[in-house]
Amino acid sequence: LSLAEGGLIGVEDAAGAVSSAIRVFGLSGEEAATTADRLLKITNLMSLQANDLTLALGTVSSGAGQTAQNMNEMLVAMGLVKNAGLDTSVAASSVSSALQFMAKNSEDFSDRLGVSVTNADGTFRDFIDVVMDADKALGERFTSQAERATVGLELFGRFGVTAFQNVATQIKNGVRNAEGDLLRGADAVAYLRDQLASAEG
After folding, report:
1. Which of 45-59, 66-80, 155-169 has the lowest mean pLDDT?
2. Per-residue model confidence as pLDDT tens digits over 91-105
3. What is the pLDDT of residue 14?
4. How far apart are alpha carbons 28 and 43 in whole angstroms?
5. For 35-68, b where at least 16 C-beta lie within 10 A, e where not — what string?
């Protein structure tokens, strides 16, 4: 009900979005209220709208599931791509594709960029951390913009590179916090993650 009211959507659509999130990310029914709060929070932070959520969550599920990404990370990533002016379906599909290629090309990420896509225990790192590290490594290792674009395309895939480029660009351009301060890079990512993590009630 709170998601429906805050997101200006029908109760059925709100329930569908929460159900989709619970299913995609393996959450429990007891987390429904917190999930609704976080879904509403992303609509306040970014241009991802409440009536986009069911489509976005369902579309990103393949890549998110393959790399065990959490809901908050996916909401932020899709929101950043959507903020670049892309359709919801494109934003979600490109993030999903980037994750699948990230998993497929894990050795290439290490060999060509010196970037690990997994943690020491073998689990996949958070998507946005990989994006920031890859973007930095591309800038350091390739002086030509054409070379950087080519390598990014090869690593993240033809469609996934859309997510990579737009997430990296949005983070570098910065996001504004509640006080109006412009945060860039790791500070911007930390702020967005914290906003979702603390979104309860």
Report:
1. 45-59
2. 999 999 999 999 999
3. 77
4. 22
5. bbbbbbbbbebbbbebbbbbbbbbbbbebbeebe
Q: What is the pLDDT of residue 8?
A: 65
CB atoms within 10 A of CB 188: 23
DSSP string, 24-85: HTT--GGGHHHHHHHHHHHHHHSS--GGGHHHHHHHHHHHHHHTT--HHHHHHHHHHHHHTT
Contact partners, residue 31, CB within 8 Å, separation at least 6:
22
Q: Which residues contact 36 (CB under 8 A, 6 or more apart)?
A: 2, 3, 14, 18
CB 99, CB 127: distance < 8 Å: yes
